[in-house]
Write a structure and sequence with these properties.
The protein has 18 helices and eight strands. The protein is α/β, with parallel strands linked by helices. It binds adenine and zinc ion. The site of adenine has 11 residues, from helix 4.
Length: 336
């Protein structure tokens, strides 16, 4: 039966991880010291790496996590900081047996605090290039837009010269939608997604993480997404599940994240078996590995421990991940 060694050797693709979510407490404190960043003094969690990790084990919701996620990234200033962050992730991912990574970053979380988009992108791009050369990991970068901010701000960032240049050069190939989900339905971003589609970009959006299954329907029908990030609440709507299975839309499921952010009480409640039985395609991902207690292989292992999947189930999952990737057919056939 599949064990950790078996899971390590599978040709894994990751489609749902936020590079800013790879910021370990160790790197956070190191960069805070280097860059003279003052962390909140009124929150005792920021005293040591240990106290911060202990706080990460007590998240109560997506928003409770996001507050730490946005404070954490305040230590990222220079291009080399972004490169170090992403390189840290690629090294973990490589030892986990990752072949291909489609990764998110949040431009607005940096531009709104005075760090330029080109600083962020040049650091992340350098790490991606190094991951390809030294680790054989191929990558695709996705700019995510923060749905708790006004849609017109998101549009402005999307249309800015440097962001447009990164789409035209192919440095960034997709857009996504993240941050607080409840009260920020997909419909708010119709214009943004219309423009991104016209520009030939791939489209994805977080939907059905904390928000209802109706957000999945509107992400598909109103935004025209090719993929759904999380999507666990799809299991509540049998008709929609049939539709998604029939059209082959990939869900990027993040099991450890769902438990830590209390979307479910335990891994067993992530609808892995339900999706397999319904023919819904999904990949297994780490979301924010430094905050949720594990990288991609830990997520695979947690799923195996909870569901006792067969070798054939794992083949189904990995095949869906490869076929649902946005890399070229040649790269896909190398991984299959
Ligand atoms: N940003 C980083 N991780 C996220 C998640 N799981 N959901 C929404 N926004 C996020
Ligand atoms: Zn996410």
């Amino acid at each position: 039966t599949p064990n950790r060694e078996f899971l390590q050797l599978l040709p894994k693709c990751e489609h749902h991880m936020h590079l800013e979510g790879a910021l370990s407490p160790t790197l956070l404190f190191k960069l805070a010291a280097q860059n003279n960043i003052t962390l909140p003094k009124d929150d005792e969690s920021f005293q040591t790496a240990e106290s911060l990790i202990a706080r990460y084990e007590r998240f109560t919701s997506l928003d409770d996590f996001l507050q730490y996620y946005y404070i954490g990234m305040s230590v990222l200033i220079h291009s080399s900081d972004f490169e170090a962050l992403a390189w840290d992730y690629f090294q973990h991912a490589s030892s986990d047996g990752l072949h291909h990574a489609e990764v998110f970053f949040d431009p607005q979380a940096h531009t709104t605090r005075g760090v330029s988009y080109s600083t962020v992108l040049s650091g992340f791009s350098a790490a991606c290039e190094r991951a390809r050369k030294e680790l054989g990991i191929t990558t695709i970068l996705t700019t995510c837009f923060l749905r708790h901010l006004p849609p017109k701000d998101c549009l402005e960032v999307f249309e800015s010269e440097e962001v447009q240049a990164s789409y035209k050069s192919g440095a960034v190939k997709a857009i996504g939608l993240d941050s607080s989900e409840l009260d920020f339905p997909p419909e708010l971003f119709t214009e943004l997604y219309g423009k991104a589609k016209k520009a030939g970009l791939r489209l994805t959006a977080h939907a059905g993480e904390e928000g209802p299954a109706t957000y999945i329907t509107s992400a598909l029908d109103v935004l025209g997404v090719d993929r759904i990030d999380h999507g666990i609440r799809l299991a509540e709507d049998a008709d929609l599940m049939k539709r998604i299975a029939a059209q082959g839309t990939l869900l990027t499921v993040c099991p450890l994240s769902n438990v830590v952010l209390r979307c479910v009480e335990k891994i067993e409640q992530v609808p892995i078996r339900t999706f397999l039985d319904a023919g819904v395609k999904f990949s297994i991902n780490s979301d924010d590995p430094a905050y949720f207690g594990g990288y991609i292989l830990d997520n695979y292992v947690a799923v195996q421990e909870a569901f006792g999947l067969s070798v054939q189930d794992w083949e189904t999952i990995c095949r869906a991940g490869i076929e649902g990737s946005w890399c070229g057919e040649e790269r896909k056939s190398e991984m299959l």
